[in-house]
Design a protein that fits this description.
Length: 459
C-alpha cells in the first residue's frame, strides 16, 4: 500500500504513552497520510519518498493528543454563574437559562468550548448534550458541524432528561423530553452522525443525563438501544452525597447498584465523576470494565469531593480525564487537568504516592481513548495509529529549567502548543486555531451569552 504524503518531525522529546511508557529524549516521528508510520530515537530514516514537510521540533515534547472524555459545550455561554453552590443548588439555579438555549446559542457555545480545548492540545472531545428544549432546532447537527470545522474528533453523547420536577426529578418540567421522544431522537442522531470506522471523526453515544433527571425506563431502554445500535453509553454517576441520598431514598440502593440494575455497567459504558464510590462499587466497575471520566476541577468547584482515582487504577478500572461543562469549570481547558488530577488526588489518602506525572499524562491520553473505546486508534504514539499528536513548547521561561519534559508538562504552567495534529492534519499553529478565528468566536459567544441572559430574565 502506498503511503500518503509524509511529514517528518525531528529533534524533540517523545512520550509515547505506549504500554511500556516508552520515551525518547531526542527522537523523530514520521506521519504518513492520517497515520503514524514510524517513530524512534535520533533522526528520521533517510530517503523517504513523498516528504511534504520537515519540522524541526527542538525544545519540544511530543505526546499523543489529549482526549477530553466529558464536557457540556453549551455551558460556555453560562459561565461564572452560581459560583458558590453545590451541584444540586447550582443545577436548580442554571436550569431556567439552559432550558432556553437555541441553535444559534449552541453553535457559538460549541465553537467557544472547542476552541479553548483545541488550542490547549485536545484532539478528541466529548460533548454530553442533554438539554433539548422543544423547538430548539437541530442541536446535534450544530455541534457536529462545529467540531468538524474546528478539525477535532468528536464523540457526541446524545443526552436526555425525562424526569421533571413534578415526577420527583430535579429539572423543571419545561426542560425535559418525553421518554419516547428522547429515545427516538437519540436513535436518529446515531443513524445520522455515528461513524464506526477506524479513523472516524464523529461518533455518537447514548447518554441520559443522571439518576436524578431521567427515569428508570429511560436508563433501561437507553442501554438496550445503545447495544442494539452498537454504540457506547455515557452518563453522570456518583457525583455527590446528595445524589447518593436521592438514590437510596428513591430506589433503595446506591448509584452503582442502581446502574447495575438498569444495565449500566459494562465495557461499553463510561461515567463522569464517580466521586462517591465504596470498595464494592470500584470492584464492580473493575469487574465489568466500566470506564470513568475523572473531572477534578469541576468536582472541586462544586465541592463534590475527591474521586478515588488511585484505587480505581489499582483495581483495573479504565480512567480518562474530563473538563466537564464550563459552567462548573470556567477555564474549559484539559491540559491543566493533568496537573489538577495529580494535585487533587495527592490531597486524598494516598498522599504523595497517589498519582505521578506519567500517570497523569496517561489519564489524559491513553486512558481517555480507552473509555471512549478507541484505544487501538488513538491515545498513544505507535506505528499504525492515527496521527493525533501535540508538540508542546518547553524551552521558554515557563519550563526551560526543568530537565524532565513530562514533569514540566504536568507540573509546570500550562505549556504552549506549537502544533497539534488530528489524523495528520494540523489544527493548531503557535497556540492559534488554524481553521477557525478565535476573535470572531469570542465576540459571538459574548453576544449569545447576553442574549440568553436577557431571554431568561424576561421569562
Ligand atoms: Zn457533567
Amino acid at each position: 500500500m502506498a503511503a500518503g504524503p509524509r511529514i517528518l518531525i525531528e529533534n524533540c522529546s517523545i512520550a509515547t504513552v505506549d504500554a511500556h511508557d516508552t520515551e525518547y529524549a531526542d527522537g523523530y516521528l514520521v506521519l504518513a497520510g492520517n497515520r503514524i508510520e514510524a517513530l524512534g530515537a535520533g533522526r528520521a530514516p533517510e530517503g523517504l519518498e513523498n516528504v511534504v514537510r520537515r519540522i524541526d521540533a527542538s525544545g519540544h515534547l511530543a505526546t499523543p493528543g489529549l482526549v477530553n472524555t466529558h464536557h457540556h459545550f453549551y455551558q460556555w455561554i453560562t459561565r461564572g454563574l452560581a459560583t458558590d453552590r453545590n451541584l444540586f443548588d447550582w443545577l436548580v439555579a442554571l436550569y431556567p437559562a439552559w432550558a432556553r438555549i437555541d441553535e444559534e446559542m449552541v453553535d457559538a457555545a460549541a465553537r467557544g468550548s472547542l476552541a479553548m480545548m483545541v488550542r490547549g492540545g485536545v484532539t478528541t472531545a466529548v460533548d454530553h448534550h442533554y438539554v433539548h428544549p422543544r423547538g430548539s432546532g437541530d442541536l446535534s447537527g450544530t455541534i457536529v458541524r462545529a467540531a468538524r470545522e474546528t478539525g477535532v474528533r468528536l464523540t457526541l453523547a446524545r443526552g436526555s432528561m425525562d424526569l421533571g420536577e413534578s415526577d420527583g426529578g430535579l429539572p423543571p418540567d419545561f426542560a425535559v423530553e418525553s421518554l419516547d421522544d428522547a429515545l427516538a431522537a437519540t436513535e436518529a442522531t446515531v443513524a445520522e452522525h455515528h461513524d464506526p470506522s477506524f479513523d472516524a471523526m464523529t461518533q455518537v453515544a447514548v447518554a441520559p443525563c443522571s439518576p436524578f433527571s431521567v427515569t428508570t425506563d429511560l436508563l433501561k431502554q437507553g442501554a438496550e438501544l445503545a447495544r442494539r445500535l452498537g454504540v457506547r453509553l455515557h452518563t453522570h454517576g456518583s457525583e455527590t452525597r446528595e445524589e447518593e441520598t436521592f438514590c437510596h431514598e428513591r430506589f433503595g440502593m446506591g448509584p452503582t447498584d442502581y446502574f447495575e440494575s438498569t444495565g449500566w455497567l459494562g465495557e461499553d459504558v463510561w461515567m463522569a465523576h464517580c466521586v462517591h464510590m465504596n470498595d464494592s462499587d470500584i470492584a464492580a466497575f473493575a469487574r465489568t470494565r466500566t470506564g470513568v471520566a475523572h473531572c477534578p476541577s469541576s468536582n472541586a468547584r462544586l465541592a463534590a469531593g475527591i474521586a478515588r482515582v488511585p484505587d480505581m487504577l489499582a483495581a483495573g478500572v479504565p480512567v480518562g480525564l474530563g473538563v466537564d461543562g464550563t459552567a462548573s469549570n470556567e477555564s474549559g481547558e484539559l491540559h491543566t487537568e493533568l496537573r489538577n488530577a495529580l494535585l487533587i488526588n495527592r490531597l486524598g489518602p494516598h498522599r504523595e504516592t497517589a498519582l505521578d506525572a506519567r500517570q497523569a499524562l496517561r489519564l489524559g491520553t491513553h486512558g481517555g481513548a480507552q473509555v471512549l473505546g478507541r484505544a487501538d486508534q488513538i491515545g498513544s504514539l505507535e506505528p499504525g495509529k492515527l496521527a493525533d499528536l501535540v508538540l508542546w513548547r518547553l524551552d521558554t521561561l515557563a519550563h526551560a529549567s526543568i530537565a524532565d519534559p513530562v514533569a514540566a508538562l504536568v507540573l509546570g504552567a500550562a505549556a504552549p502548543v506549537t502544533a497539534s495534529f488530528v489524523g495528520g492534519r494540523q489544527i493548531v499553529e503557535n497556540g492559534r486555531l488554524l481553521h477557525a478565528d478565535e476573535d470572531t468566536i469570542a465576540r459571538s459567544t459574548r453576544a449569545q451569552a447576553q442574549r440568553l441572559a436577557r431571554i431568561t430574565e424576561q421569562s
